Amino acid sequence: MSAIQNIASKELYLAVKTKRFIILLSVYLIFLALSVYFTRFDVTAEGSYGYTVHRTIMGASGVIYETPISSIFINNSMLWMFFGALLGILLGADSINRELQEGTVKVLLGHPVYRDEVINGKFLGNALALLLVILVGFIFTIATALIFGIPMEGLSLVRLFILSIFIFLYTLVFLSLGTMISTLIRSPETSILVSIGLVIFFVIVYPILAGSLANSIVGEPPECHAVTVVRQVEANGQVIESIGPSNDNCAEIYEEWREKVTVWERRINILNPAMHFAQLMIYTFAGEEGYDDYLPLSDSLGYAINNLAILIIELLFPFSIAYVRFLTRDLR
Length: 332
Fold this sequence. Notes:
two-stranded antiparallel ribbon, 6 strands
């Protein structure tokens, strides 16, 4: 076994036995169980599923095909974005500086290992811990859905699996951020506080600021006045002309304004990994309005390439800073 594998195994072991990991995993599963539980009431309600609806989340937008599984994740998207970010960043937040504070990194480097093997091994170990959480969540979602009598179609399961891969990538972005913070801040307690603050910023503050800024750029909603239209109506078996006011044109005008706001919101959120993850969630459950059904996976995932590429860059960039910082810093 290579040095990286040894360090990764040790990091995975240490990560899963911490109270922090157990608490986060437990909270994750509780939220999943509650989401599935409350979804079961909608399953029995007529007209709750089987139709498409347009959704906008943080500037990400698209048409969703409503199913019990898409409802569990899309309707609680903010929750999953917050929890996934918190889980990833907290695993990395003290992965390096705690070793420095306790002096165990010197013992580690006393063995025939290089610094790059240490940071790569630690990141890999924490990534495996995240993968374990995602896999447990995937299986747990299916199990609780079956227990509560929620029908699980084959295509829904495939899309749930794809969403799990996107969740894993999203949590890796924040693990990378946490690892970077751990190499830049010497105190583990401070780095954990900074990490929590970053999650709150990306998932809550940034979208609010982006929405306000987008509204300021586009301006107030347009004023719309009723126009006089002539309609042909049937009365007493005869078709007659009726003249009266109509607001039908207002919906189109307001929709154009709303679309402009969404476009600006998306532009401002371009650096926010939460927005890209929200867009991936929408693409995963994308529906075709014309056919009232799912959009083919090949089509919907084709739209997701840009969001995937940005998330991968946001994963590699902080880790490259952490990598350089760890290799060049004084470890005394």
